[in-house]
Amino acid sequence: MRTILVINASPNHNNSYSRLLTEHFVDRCKQHNPNDIFIFRELGNVNIPHVNQHWVKAAFTPENLRSCEDKQALSFSDELVKELQDADVIVIASPMHNLSVPSTLKAYIDQVIRMGVTTSLVPGTLGSPYVGRLANKKAYLFLVRGGYGFGSGEIYEHMDFQEPYLKAVLQMLGVTDITSVTMNYTTMQEALRQDSYSQAQAQIDALTPPEK
Fold it and tell me: What residue spans define the domains of the chain?
């Protein structure tokens, strides 16, 4: 039995291919292991608070010295962090917005990167000064782009600040087992869009084989 945290970042409920990919993934997981527990975190259509001065003060105050105001400032962050800590599998579904991720997903990331809680700063560590505290978790990225050419070796690879950013953030949290599924052409010709969608579904099918 696994606890699977599904994070949807698209502001669209209808006509959202990233949501269709998470739905397909969830359906396949339920077929393969009906005992899986799913937690859904909606980001696309809710107000995710931005980190402010009160949050920063509270986050860098030792837990035993936090005031009631400090605890209130971190209450939503604590909720999000616990979801991540409890999850065995983390699924992030995100469209590409202006070469990167939607602002709500960025705000979520700012809420869950907590020094001494989800990551630690260890200067001089090979590869990264951050040592994550959420190890032994599997992550899936379901990434959707309106155009094309952002993949490895493709013409616009240098403009992709979506996949590299999310992978770096997950690694900062200690999650290194990351699999990406991408879909392109969502704002282009129907034939191209549907072909890319079918390919993404097939990749998910390969990740979640049917129950034998």
Answer: 3-207
Distant-in-sequence, close-in-space partners of 101: CB < 8 Å, separation ≥ 6? 9, 94, 162, 165, 166
Burial 179-204 (b: 16+ CB within 10 A, else e): ebbbbbbbeeeeeebeebbeebbebb
Segment 133-148, tens digit of pLDDT: 999 999 999 999 999 9
- In the DSSP assignment, the letter for residue 6 is E
Left, alpha or beta for 174 (phi > 0: left; psi -120 to 50: alpha)?
left
Q: Supply 89's token pair.
A: 């599998």
pTM of the model: 0.95
End-to-end CA distance of the chain: 17
Question: Span 3-207: which CATH code?
Answer: 3.40.50.360
Where residue 75 falls (left for φ over 0; alpha for ψ -120 to 50; beta otherwise) is alpha
Token reading at 52 = 């402010």
pLDDT tens for 24-62 read: 999 999 998 899 999 999 999 999 999 999 999 999 999
